[in-house]
Amino acid sequence: MSEIPGDLKFLKSHEWARVESSGRVTVGISDHAQGLLGDLVYVELPGVGDTVQAGNGAAVVESVKAASDVYSPVSGTVVEVNSALSDKPETINEDAYGEGWIFVVELDDKEELNDLLSPDDYAELLEDDDH
Question: What is the pLDDT of residues 3-31, one digit of tens each?
Fold first, then answer.
């Protein structure tokens, strides 16, 4: 399993959020999640301008094994999507915390970030799952 970057926050459902210097939040799925799903073959992206709610489905990733909702860690408006994933969904498998980001949200409420798991808490959750 790859190292969990220290600048991310997580949902228990394995999505990550990175707060950018602009205050916007980049969202993706964890390396653990992509490993469970296996080779991704399709990503259904939200639309730019879509409103997303924290904890609600905003995108879908599909592998040969399963389809899985991607939940938004925060509420706000989608301002950017990683359209490169349409042609290369496997980018998420190759670089879940980098080039494999899925969408960017203009945050409605910064307080929501406090509800997310720290990298250490997320690592603990994964350890508990393994036992």
Answer: 899 999 999 999 999 999 999 999 999 99
Amino acid at 50: D
Instruction: Kindly list the domain boundaries of the chain, sorted by start residue.
Output: 9-106
Closest by alpha carbon to 101, among 58, 38, 56? Answer: 58
Contacts (Cβ under 8 Å, ≥6 apart) of 128:
none
| Distance set, CA 87 to CA 25, 48, 68, 93, 106 (Å) | 23, 18, 18, 14, 25
> Could you tell me which CATH number the domain at 9-106 has?
2.40.50.100
- Coil, strand or helix at 81: strand
| pTM attached to this predicted model | 0.95
